[in-house]
Amino acid sequence: MIESGYFFQSIGNTLLIWIMSIIPQLTIAFLLALILSNKWFRGRFILRNIYYFPNLVTPVTIGLLFGAMFSYPGGAINNIISALGLEAVDFQNNQMLARMVIAIAICWKNFGFNIIYFTAGINSISEEVLEAAEVDGASSWQRITKITIPLMRPILIYVLVTSVIGGLQMFDESKLVFTNVPGDATTTMVKYMYDSAFVRFQFGYSAAVSYGIFVIIAFFSIISLIVTKDRGDDYGKTKKARKGRK
């Protein structure tokens, strides 16, 4: 397995697609959570339910849906592109575009789940703390970066770790959105394990790959915990230092 270039390629594909999906996914979810947490925003409860709707759709349905939307040349996206007078795009035969489409599908599926957690975390923060910061002259940006985010640390850790685990286990979108992408550019680790077992019938090798996937997921989960812990400790030390100066 270690000598297999295809296995390491599947690791690279998985990490690349995960990075392309996780950054916009968490960013959009956090920004929308900030908006939906404001009491002045009417219809916020309805929008929360709408944003969560993709989580109720099965991964198989999402994979087939995005495959149909981005198909060449008659998919919905290409119909829009053609209506604008542009040439239709063959997403499947472009390695980077194929990865981007899968990343978009994953982002669309998961960001509603993150909105729920982020909204709960923001609403759990005492309004007195935010009002006191506003009285002290803190700007909206300072209240978010110095108060909201540090106080949401447990939820941020949970969302980050589950996003790491879920992202490294991606399979349905990789298998169903596109087939026969050049250079196996969308073959993820789990899809590689599946193909090894049920396409090439190498069951022993597939079992070895599954252990490798477990080690990789555990490694990145531990790294994410260490990074968030270090940042939390730095925040705590800074807070104590400020109290000491007072």
From TrEMBL:
Ranges where the ABC transmembrane type-1 domain occurs: 11-224
Topology in membrane: Multi-pass membrane protein
Pfam family, one: BPD_transp_1
Single GO biological process annotation from the record: transmembrane transport
Transmembrane parts of this sequence: 15-37, 49-72, 96-118, 151-171, 203-227
Family: Belongs to the binding-protein-dependent transport system permease family.
Annotated protein name in UniProt: Sugar ABC transporter permease
